[in-house]
UniProtKB/TrEMBL annotation:
A matching Pfam family: SpoIIE
Record's keyword terms, sorted: Hydrolase, Membrane, Transmembrane, Transmembrane helix
Transmembrane residue ranges: 39-58, 65-90, 110-128
Species of provenance: Yinghuangia aomiensis
InterPro entries cross-referenced by the UniProt entry: Bact_Sigma-Reg (IPR052016), PPM-type-like_dom_sf (IPR036457), PPM-type_phosphatase-like_dom (IPR001932)
SMART domains linked to this entry: PP2C_SIG
Span of domain PPM-type phosphatase: 162-374
Protein name (Swiss-Prot/TrEMBL): PP2C family protein-serine/threonine phosphatase
């Protein structure tokens, strides 16, 4: 999957968001409007089954009995369960008719076994689709919509010209869903405060994707609605109420005053952040204390404060960037900051993507990087 990047550049950020919104709306309309009715599809497939019963009389070598697999597969994708079973009955009738009226060698036991196996597999898949009460491929369309909404939650609001953010999410194995997600808002104090939360849900890829989808909506509602120090406690209580067997998560929450550069970083069992201090030319590790989300009721989270001056940058990342089994996390952080040092000469241009590409420690885990820069 392509990188999920969000660079806040004043001259193109507004238009890129508008074009992206129009594109997503058109894609959703196209997916839903092109799904034909169940009755129309059934009649069409019934005609195909009839043709499969007649065409072998023309040339059995070009139209074998296994041609019936085609309407069976299409029916499994588009028909409801009741219509699909009726289609199976029509296919069985065609097989019986061919056995009695055609060359006995035409309907072979092997061909019948192939058709039966395909029909069983299609029925198995259609059964799960029917449990959702969805027709055709709308289940897949819903997943696409949910993925788009998850990405939309990670959009950083438009910032003043002297500020820039870069966000990259890289799911494990190139999958479409990630256990890492970002939520951002610029709501409190008249839009003066930027808040960003980078969350890493337990698990990876598709295993964590469903929980990430739910949590991104809930955390997006909490972010900006509460004081900065109230976000992680509220998120912790929300996770505990879910009662999931594997429901913990780590998170880092940053609140930045866009006028003064003052920030507060709070963490819930998450790797530390790194502050590039332009005046000294060094990286300052910013590590806050706090337990994992979803484990301890009433947990408290202590933050660290700092100031982002002109030329400074703040780097946030998930454990997939720095953790390697059997290796201390400090080694991974040193490697990541070493790669980040190479970005300084280019003024951190395209920094988040380049860091993920070169410093990602665990390719089997979801990886995410957030870079906040003050010019």
């Amino acid at each position: 999957m392509a990188d999920t990047r969000r660079s806040q550049q004043p001259h193109r950020g507004r238009w890129s968001r508008r074009l992206g919104r129009v594109g997503r709306q058109f894609t959703r309309w196209l997916r839903h409007s092109l799904v034909p009715s169940d009755g129309f599809v059934f009649v069409l497939l019934l005609g195909m089954v009839t043709a499969c019963g007649l065409l072998p009389a023309v040339d059995g070598s070009w139209f074998p009995v296994t041609t019936l697999v085609i309407p069976i597969v299409i029916g499994g994708l588009l028909l409801r369960m009741s219509s699909l079973l009726l289609l199976y009955g029509a296919c069985a009738g065609v097989l019986v008719a061919q056995e009695r009226t055609r060359d006995p060698n035409h309907v072979t036991p092997g061909g019948v076994v192939v058709i039966a196996l395909v029909a069983f597999m299609v029925l198995f898949v259609a059964r799960y689709r029917t449990r959702l009460g969805l027709q055709g491929t709308r289940g897949e369309s819903m997943l696409f919509d949910l993925r788009d909404r998850l990405r939309a939650h990670g959009l950083v609001p438009e910032l003043p010209p002297q500020w820039e953010t870069d966000v990259v999410l890289r799911p494990a194995g190139g999958q479409a869903f990630s256990g890492d997600f970002v939520v951002a808002t610029r709501g409190r104090r008249g839009g003066r405060t930027l808040e960003i939360a980078l969350v890493d849900v337990s698990g990876k890829g598709l295993d964590a994707g469903t929980r990430a989808l739910l949590l991104s909506g809930a955390f997006g509602g909490l972010l900006g609605s509460l004081p900065a120090r109230g976000f992680l406690p509220a998120a912790n209580e929300y996770l505990i109420r879910q009662g999931w067997d594997e429901g913990f998560a780590t998170a880092v929450h940053i609140a930045v005053d866009l006028e003064t550069g003052d920030y507060e970083l709070l963490s819930a069992g998450h790797p530390p952040g790194a502050h590039w201090v332009a005046g000294t030319g060094t990286w300052d590790i910013r590590e806050a204390e706090g337990p994992l989300l979803g484990i301890i009721p009433g947990a408290e989270f202590d933050g660290v404060r700092g100031v982002l001056g002109p030329g400074d940058a703040l780097l946030l990342f998930t454990d997939g960037m720095v953790e390697v089994p059997g290796q201390d996390i400090a080694v991974g952080i040193d490697r990541l900051l070493g790669e980040a040092d190479r970005l300084i000469a280019d003024d951190f241009k395209d920094g988040a993507r380049r860091i993920v590409d070169t410093a990602g420690a665990n390719l089997a885990d979801d990886r995410a990087v957030v870079l906040i820069r003050r010019h």
